[in-house]
Amino acid sequence: MRLVLNEPVDGMKGPYRRRWWALLVLCLSLLIIVMANTALTVAAPAMTEDLGLSSADLQWVIDGYTVPYAALMLLLGAIGDKYSRRGALILGLVVFAGGAISGYLADSSATVIAARAVMGVGAALIMPATLSLLAATFPRAERAKAITLWTATAGLAIAAGPLVAGALLENHGWSSTFLINVPVAAVAIAGALVLVPPSRAGHHDRIDHVGGLLSVVWIGALVYMIIEGPHFGWGPKAIGAAVVAALALLAFVLWELRHPHPVIDVRRFTDRRFAGSNLAVALFFLAVFGAFYYLTQHLQFVLGYDALDTGLRMLPLAGAVFVGSALTAYLTPRVGMKWTVTAGMVGGTAALALLTQVDSTSSYGDFVASLVVLGVAIGLALSPCTDAIMGAFPESELGVGGAVNDTSLELGGSLGIAILGSLLGTSYSDRLGEAASGSGLPAGTLATAQDSVGAGYAVAQGVADRARQLGEQAAQSTDPRQAAQLKEQAAQLAENARHMADSVGSSFADAVAHTSLVGAVVLGVGTLLVAVLLPGKEKRAEAEAGDTADAGDADKGEREFSEVR
Q1: Which of 22, 264, 310, 361 has the smallest number of Cβ neighbours within 10 A?
Q2: Is a pLDDT exceeding 90 seen at residue 344?
Q3: Domain architecture of the chain: domains with CATH
């Protein structure tokens, strides 16, 4: 039996009565898949120490989630449209929870990476389903407000991940950060069954499986290249992935242009509003994920905050996202998305520019302004872009629309971590090589310290421990000459350790400033491109009127639902 929104499941007229409760379930589902990445940033040091992870292992623990997540969204979004969007959401939550349980039980780098990959598959089902169900459940007049709350939830998750993980790590091991997802997923599943209406496309042709598989290949290969090249060098793997991504993308575009019912009509990217919105999402998350990657490291390693304190100090970002979301909900209908999105991107650029002032004397107070400005910018820019992207798709392709938005987000985030993270690592290594030249460390030990800021402090701590041991030996020695020599050696090593720790901190602070400058330039140039691409308010209104006419009765708020068979 097919039901429309004007005649929902309880037979009453008007929009689906429990749509705001349904939104709560969708936001809860979004919360855990975003937190799965941000929580890992504070759990990574404990995991590295416990499992003996190399830098390459740790990188793939992070990105083992990203590759399947980004690669599968487009195909799985189309499948959800055809069969059941709510079914895709519930199945994704089950898979995600299964991966989280596997991560909790993991005892090696390989099993952690495999668990994260399973969670990535679950996230690829969940993410487009949340947006498609939101768009299908809310009438057009309320959709922008609902998307604003959805976007604010993503901003909250960015800051809440480190906070929740830090609280767990106070009394539990790193594996507890996986297990926390299970009860949340269980609540979301129960909520989906009770509160989220079943939904699928009223008319959907046979799925373009070839186009879907080509999208998996080119996106997966592109993300792999983004990860592999900057972090591990442009060897055969990275170059091979780049070639595969380029060929598969070309084949995908040609196939979609000729297919009568493509998985996505690539001609949509000739529309300025659609193309500009996707570019804005990708560039913004390049900056956000990249900055988040090095800010959490600076707070933990350089300023010495533990996991919980780091999470608490990211809260200004979450609060500012809600402020920005409230502003965009008020401003966008009045001035148009071009101005709110551009203002948000200018704010993001300013936040990165503020971080160029970071140096070895910077305290947490020097980061607060950047966090607040970045949070407001996220709230201003992202929900209008998501609304524009979703509005470009008919009701039968809402899952694909959500997947396009989320793929732009994930590609931007991957680029941010890979490019800015690689630049950060190179800059830190170069600066430490210069700053630690007088530390008296062997070349091999210095090379170890140059690997990462965590390794640098570990080397400094090792030297300090050795100095303390020599001091204890000097105190126990009965030979005055030997005791004097040991004290002299201990004093020299202690000085070397202090010099090394100071060099690590100053080198990483300088690398943060340098990386932020590059990020600000990239986002600033991107802001100009987006400002040129996005149409003004009048053109936007005309485009929306055309979309409404094409959609037939969409302005009446009709949304099709079908019972799960």
Answers
A1: 361
A2: yes
A3: 2-207+263-431+506-562 (1.20.1250.20)
